[in-house]
Amino acid sequence: MPGISVTYLGLSLKSPVILSSSSLTNSTNGVRRAADAGAGAVVLKSLFEEQIEAESAENSEDVDYASHPEAQEYIEQMGRHLGPDSYLKLIADAKSSVDVPVIASVNCVSPRWWSDYARQIEIAGADALELNIAIMPRSGDDPSDVEARYLRIVERVRDRVHLPIAVKIGPYFTSLAAFTDALRRVGASALVLFNRFYQLDIDVDSAQLTPGYQFSTPQEIHTALRWISILAGESASELVGSTGIHEGSDAIKMLLAGATAVQVCSTVYKNGYQRITEINESIESWMDKKGYGAIEEFRGRLAQAGSSSPEAYERMQYIKALTGLS
């Protein structure tokens, strides 16, 4: 059978399929089940910045809860449920339970609280650190100021740890290519594209805000697929495809576009951990059919950098779609 091992963040992965941060990875049992199913690596459930704040004695003075009356109680509950100390134990326990890389994850919006905590994550034994950064711009925010916050977070953590760092971001930046290059310069070794933001809905009967559909759909693959194909070969950072990857064919598309690996989540919720096995088998079957012995033989084959028709990745496809011309 073809070999599907890859190298990501300097780590050897037996498969390019990574189980992403979620409640599926908030326990040693979940991590073990993912590894047994063939995951190349596991990203632990994100520790939120607010959970670290909840353990601080200065919490009530430093966090503004005025606009959310129930927020303080909720944040304190978060701190008690898989708080920072428990998270460090999860890292250590997971590392002793599986033979695949264990990647810690922190969901953050500022650099102030947890750059020191990142060092504790390293000491606990994590193989790498994924910074899940999702900063919602507010009215009047200067785009350059928002991007600068991202860069300060990465730079602060880079100064504190020797772990390889991946940064998971959304697609909404003025110039994504320039911004991803800036992230690399301040210490990001890899980029995970893309974050799937909280989905909002409205219950018209109660006139209340409600959560929207929380799982991704296969149709959501296209934004990440496009940007990975554009950035591959141009960016010095490793690229990981995320969101909308539900089947083996989706993973193959990402690899052809230039991804080093892919992250899956929603499809595992829907189909169980065996979906990881099925995706790996699909990749192997396709490679065998095409005569590939290793992923490196076809990774990036359809990236823009090596294309004879680079316009197909940008405006030309948009024109074709709207005019109906082939």
Layout of secondary structure:
Layout: E1 6-8, E2 11-13, E3 17-19, H1 28-36, E4 41-43, E5 47-48, H2 49-54, H3 59-62, H4 71-80, H5 84-97, E6 102-108, H6 115-124, E7 128-133, H7 143-160, E8 165-169, H8 176-185, E9 190-193, E10 200-203, E11 208-211, H9 221-231, E12 238-242, H10 248-257, E13 261-264, H11 266-271, H12 274-290, H13 315-323
Parallel strand pairs: 3-4, 3-13, 4-6, 5-6, 6-7, 7-8, 8-9, 9-12, 12-13
Antiparallel strand pairs: 1-2, 10-11
Helix pairs in contact: 1-5, 5-6, 6-7, 9-10, 10-12
Commentary on this structure:
By secondary structure, this protein is an alpha/beta fold. The protein has one domain (6-45, 82-323): Aldolase class I (TIM Barrel). It is 41% helix and 16% strand. It has 13 helices and 13 strands. The strands form 3 sheets. Strands 3-4-6-7-8-9-12-13 form an 8-stranded parallel beta barrel, surrounded by 8 helices. Strands 1-2 form a two-stranded antiparallel sheet. The protein has a two-stranded antiparallel sheet with strand order 10-11. Helix 1 (28-36) links the parallel strand 3 and strand 4 (41-43). Helix 9 (221-231) packs parallel to helix 10. The chain is globular and about 55 Å long. The two termini are 38 Å apart.
